[in-house]
UniProtKB/TrEMBL annotation:
This is MFS transporter. It comes from Actinomadura montaniterrae. CDD domains: MFS_MMR_MDR_like. It comes from the Bacteria. Residues 19-460 form the Major facilitator superfamily (MFS) profile domain. Its main location: membrane. The keyword Isomerase does not apply. GO terms for cellular component: plasma membrane. Pfam families: MFS_1. One of its GO terms (molecular function) is transmembrane transporter activity. The chain crosses the membrane at residues 12-36, 56-73, 85-108, 114-135, 142-162, 174-195, 207-229, 235-253, 273-294, 306-326, 338-357, 369-388, 408-426, 438-457. InterPro entries: MFS, MFS_dom, MFS_trans_sf.
Length: 460
């Protein structure tokens, strides 16, 4: 059972509003920061003197910290206080944003982005846990998780646009100063307005599970990121081997503990299986290709980074709107079926975008972006609901951490696979267009397979 500190008389409504507004704002900020380099990579790389391999790490380093820390921070929040971990995450995001803003070279910037990922993990995992503690199951929770899911789409839409505009006005470092201030304000407001919530029966620190899981996922994401510069490098193979050993050790540790960080028995729950598998497919088949699409529009269609970000905002903006409206769907419709419908719409939108060529107009992509955006929003809303409702009430942040770990590991793999396929035939506009077409087709097929899987898993 989850306990929630009782607010003073007359402040219950304000406390409930804060329990939605602050996690939503934190998710918006985290996703804006996650996608900010998409529109400013050239300026950032030039300012830091980064080479081709450095550019890969500039874009992907935040994913390493994010994926590695989501489950750990969610579990710690359930046991030691969600507001506490949320506030620590906000402070860490502020400090790491300052490090990125003042970084003289690639090394410090990449380190700062990794810490930003860990801090963002704390905000994302605890945010859904705070919402679950404040809103009991029913229409109000469905609305609250829909709002949280909508922030994913809005953050992806606004991040590249905001960073591009700030870069034009004051240089690429400006975004990181803005993120630092916003994070500091967010943490201060959280300490003053949020009630504390935690499990009534803390499980204690599962140090072996925490270490093996975090290091295993970190090694896997690092291997995927570095592998984009050459999959047969000894370092990449060593990281893949280390990831396999560590994740196997994590499974063995959790199977033997009486109070594990992640109860492996949860995978026998259809709703939990839907939450994790749906998030993994979303990362693989949706985030992967969409993260690459803005770059393709610049290199193939000749659009500026700002215009490319605005075109991509058709998809992410509609994702925001669709997630907000998901609460209006009949309550009798199972979340798993709606998740499958969202993935099917994402696949249909990707099929509609096939046929990109150097002489295409950007309008050619709009129908597919519209359909895929609606599907992505519906899927995000259902994944947020499943994340907290598929686990015991006192493990809501852990459920969010598991869900989002799958999402961002999938996204890391998706980006790497899309990049490899898209550039496999060369880096000229025609070759890149053909490669992107193949990558889009593969993504659509994976999304369709995910929709079929979601339809096959029956919730109980």
């Amino acid at each position: 059972m989850t306990t929630l500190a009782t607010p003073r008389a007359g402040r219950h409504a304000a406390g409930t509003a804060a329990a939605l507004a602050l996690p939503a704002a934190a998710t918006l900020l985290a996703l804006m920061n996650y996608t900010a380099p998409m529109a400013t990579l050239t300026e950032t790389a030039h300012g830091l003197g980064a080479g081709p391999t450095g550019r890969i790490w500039l874009m992907s380093s935040i994913s390493l910290g994010l994926a590695a820390a989501l489950l750990a921070t969610g579990s710690l929040a359930d046991d030691h206080g969600r507001r506490r971990v949320f506030a620590i995450g906000a402070a860490a995001l502020a400090a790491s944003s300052v490090a990125c803003a003042v970084a003289p070279g690639t090394g410090l910037f990449v380190a700062g982005r990794i810490v930003q990922g860990v801090a963002s993990a704390a905000l994302l995992a605890t945010g859904l846990g705070i919402i679950a503690a404040a809103f009991p199951p029913g229409p109000r929770r469905a609305h609250a998780t829909g709002v949280w899911g909508a922030m994913l789409g809005l953050g992806i839409a606004l991040g590249p646009i905001a960073s591009a505009e700030l870069t034009s006005a004051a240089g690429w470092r400006a975004w990181y100063w803005v993120a630092a201030v916003a994070s500091a304000v967010l943490g201060a407001v959280a300490v003053r307005t949020l009630g504390e919530s935690r499990s009534e029966r803390p499980r204690g620190l599962d140090l072996p599970g925490l270490v093996t899981m975090s290091l295993g996922v970190a090694a896997l994401v690092a291997a995927i990121t570095w592998g984009r510069a050459g999959w047969t490098r000894p370092g990449v193979l060593a990281l893949l081997g280390a990831a396999a050993v560590l994740l196997a050790a994590f499974t063995a540790v959790e199977a033997r503990r009486t109070e594990p960080m992640l109860d492996l028995g949860l995978f026998r729950r259809p709703a939990f299986l839907l939450s994790v598998s749906g998030a993994l497919v979303t990362g693989l088949a949706v985030i992967g290709i969409m993260s690459y699409l803005a770059t393709v529009m610049t290199l193939v269609l000749g659009l500026s980074p700002v215009v490319s970000a605005l075109v991509l905002a058709i998809w992410s903006g509609l994702s925001f709107v669709a997630a907000l409206q998901a609460r209006r769907l009949p309550a009798r419709l199972p979340a798993g079926r709606l998740l499958g419908a969202g993935l099917a719409l994402s696949a249909a939108g990707e099929f509609a975008m096939l046929g990109l060529a150097p002489d295409s107009h950007w309008w050619r992509l709009v129908p597919g972006l519209v359909v895929s955006g609606v599907g992505s929003g519906l899927a995000n809303a259902m994944l947020a609901r499943l994340a907290v409702e598929s686990v015991p009430a006192d493990r809501a942040s852990m459920g969010s951490g598991a869900n989002n770990t799958a999402r961002y590991v999938g996204a890391s793999i998706g980006v790497a696979v899309v990049g490899a396929i898209a550039t496999g035939s060369g880096d000229g506009p025609s070759a890149l267009a053909h490669g992107t077409d193949v990558a889009m087709l593969v993504s659509a097929v994976v999304a369709l397979a995910g929709a079929a899987l979601a339809a096959a898993i029956r919730e109980r």
